[in-house]
Each structure stands twice: as C-alpha cells, then as structure tokens.
C-alpha cells in the first residue's frame, strides 16, 4: 500500500498523532477537484436537517446528503459514478470497503459542525472514516475528550484526503468551527462502513 504523507511534512500542525489521523494533500488534482466541487454543489439534492438541543429544534448549520448501498439511513441515495470513483480511490488508502458516504456542504463561514465523535452504533465502536474535501480550505480541529488542552488542527485543502483511523472516535472529538473571515463554499465527503 502507498505510504501516506506525514502530517508535519504537509506543512500542518507538527506532532499530529499519526496513529489517529493521516493527511494527504492533492489526492485529486486541482482540475478534477474544481469540476467535482461544481458538480457536487449543483447535482446533489441537499437537505438541511434539524437537531434537538435542550428540547428545542435547531437547523443544522450545513447541508447534507447520504449516498451508498445502506438502507440503515433514511433517504440514502444510490452511488453516483463520481462518488464511486472517489470511493475507489480512498478504499486502498484506508484498507477497508466503504458502503456509504455522507456529503456535507458548508456554504460559507457561518456553516460548521460542532465538536462531536462519529461513534454511532451502526458504525461499530472503532470506525475507520475516509474524508475528502473540495473548495474552501477549512480547519479540522481535534481534541482529547478527557483533556481539551490536548488538541491539533489540520487545514483540509482542495482535493485533499484525511484518514480518521480506528482509535480516533473513541477518545477524541472533532469539529469544523465557524469563521468570521469570508469563506467560500466547501464540500466534504466522509466515507463510512455502516453495519
Ligand atoms: O467537514 C468535515 O471535514 C468533517 C465532517 C464531519 O465531521 C462529519 O460529517 O461527521
Ligand atoms: Fe465527524
């Protein structure tokens, strides 16, 4: 299997725990990424879901859509050729088969995902997740659940690949913070194995 670029070598935070995360810029070329960004924005039937917090419903601050062969998540659409092609690129890097992908559309700096772990029971307790990003560079922050002072950040570039390894979700949380700086559109794909 091809060796992934080390986090520090990619000009990002030094000392990122390599047993938890690996980052690789330019998995896809700038030209391919430009095309995919536009196609995914325009061709995806985006939805804005709601989240319950303190017994109140809030609009999720980003748009989402699920694709894949799982019938576990309501509204999952069948694979498209583009998503299948990206899945085929990331599977050998992750070393596992993915049967679904969650698309996130961050329209501007106001869109975000709050601190969380992806450890729903339908993914098992130690899921491996492959993440591909297009468009606006945004910071992906991680922090230790038990010690928030232990944290790292990686800028996810246009066409980049981030592997969240099996130990990450159990002990760490991640987020894409809102930004006061003007931000253009960003699409993120997280390939997952839904049980
Ligand atoms: O947008 C990202 O890079 C992360 C998305 C994420 O954490 C998720 O969908 O669970
Ligand atoms: Fe996540």
From TrEMBL:
What PANTHER family does the annotation carry? ALPHA-KETOGLUTARATE-DEPENDENT DIOXYGENASE ALKB HOMOLOG 3
Q: Which UniProt keywords apply?
A: Dioxygenase, Oxidoreductase
Q: Does the keyword Transport apply?
A: no
Q: Which residues form the Fe2OG dioxygenase domain?
A: 97-195
Please provide, alphabetically and separated by semicolons, the GO molecular function terms listed in this UniProt record: dioxygenase activity
Name the lineage.
Bacteria, Pseudomonadati, Bacteroidota, Sphingobacteriia, Sphingobacteriales
Output the GO biological process annotations, alphabetical, semicolon-separated.
DNA alkylation repair
Give the top-rank taxon of the lineage listed in the UniProt record for this protein: Bacteria
Q: What is this protein called?
A: Alkylated DNA repair dioxygenase AlkB
């Amino acid at each position: 299997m091809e060796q992934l670029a080390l986090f520090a070598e990619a000009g990002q935070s030094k000392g990122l725990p390599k047993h938890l995360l690996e980052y690789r810029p330019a998995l896809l070329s700038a030209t391919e990424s430009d095309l995919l960004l536009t196609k995914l924005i325009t061709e995806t039937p985006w939805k804005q879901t709601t989240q319950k917090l303190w017994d109140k419903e809030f609009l999720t601050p980003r748009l989402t859509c699920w694709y894949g062969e799982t019938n576990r998540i309501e509204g999952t659409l069948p694979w498209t050729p583009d998503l299948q092609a990206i899945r085929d690129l990331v599977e050998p890097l992750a070393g596992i088969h993915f049967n679904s992908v969650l698309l996130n559309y961050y329209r501007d700096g106001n869109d975000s995902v709050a601190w969380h772990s992806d450890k729903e029971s339908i993914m098992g307790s130690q899921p491996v997740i492959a993440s591909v990003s297009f468009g606006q560079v945004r910071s992906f922050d991680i922090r230790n659940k038990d010690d928030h002072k232990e944290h790292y950040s990686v800028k996810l570039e246009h066409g980049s690949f981030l592997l969240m390894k099996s130990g990450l979700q159990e002990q760490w949380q991640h987020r894409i913070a809102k930004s006061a700086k003007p931000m253009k559109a960003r699409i993120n794909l997280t390939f997952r194995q839904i049980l």
